[in-house]
Amino acid sequence: MTDLEMVPNASCVAIGGYGLLIEGEVGSGKSSLALALIDRGAVLVGDDGIALERRGDALWALPPPNITGSLHVRGVGIFDMPCAAAQLSLSLWLEQKMNYTVLPVPRNRMLEGIVLPQLSLRGDDPYLPLRAESALAKYGLPLAGTMV
């Protein structure tokens, strides 16, 4: 088996099969967003680190080998939950303080030679789960082997 590339301090969930990578500084709300999205039907891929694997022209997020199925809920503890791998479609970068723009332009995030769109959102936004789902629908890459 080859060594997997790791994205430290990141969370990831799958929404309808589409992988949403959640990045940001420590304390920015990554695990909280993952928990809120799981409550809305998403599936955990991983928390506090994500393993990456390139499969052809697609990038897959895998549960981290050492903490598979664990989600840290701040102030409550660590919970075990089902998890799955997912093809990455979008990266969100959570900011502590930022102003939203009317027409945001996603940046490019290069991982394992694959360009992934990345959008910044406020980690303390009460509507963050809805914005994250909307961002995935609008800016996410299609899954490999699917028609657009």
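That was protein one. Protein two is written in the same sequence-then-structure order:
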Amino acid sequence: MKRSYEVRGKYTIITPDTVIGEGTVIWNFVNLWGCRIGRDCVIGSFVEIGRGVEIGDRCKIEAFVYIPPGVRIEDDVFIGPGVVFTNDKYPVAGGPWRLLPTLVRRGASIGARSVILPGVTIGEYAVVAAGSVVTRDVPPRTVVAGVPARPMGTREEFERKRAELLSGSP
């Protein structure tokens, strides 16, 4: 039986209980542990996605991203390289732990090397700037940056600046 997704590379682990949507591309050294990935996604190299994680359609997850159990990512989300999600606020070796679910809403964009602490919601079309540490909910269409991440503007302002940069205007 022909699978409807493509693995481009070697040394990828996909457990039998993982569900992968049609048109999705998975690169080298990826570990998928009983998660659900939607259609037409791109999963970069060296990505780890934990058991029970849900990822929507048309998401792009760059290299070196860690997504543990308890995370849900809706459609059309971008996750930059090196982003780390966490799922326990007070981890200790060998002790009990409490999973706090994290939600990334449709159309959000998370910049490179950001850290997302457990129990937060990143709103629809929100933007997390590179290197940010998200410690609380991010409202829809809001740009946050810093450690800890704080509001810096709106998605509309971000898109205007992005369009200027792409057009070559100052």
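The radius of gyration is 16 Å. Keep this in mind for the problem set.
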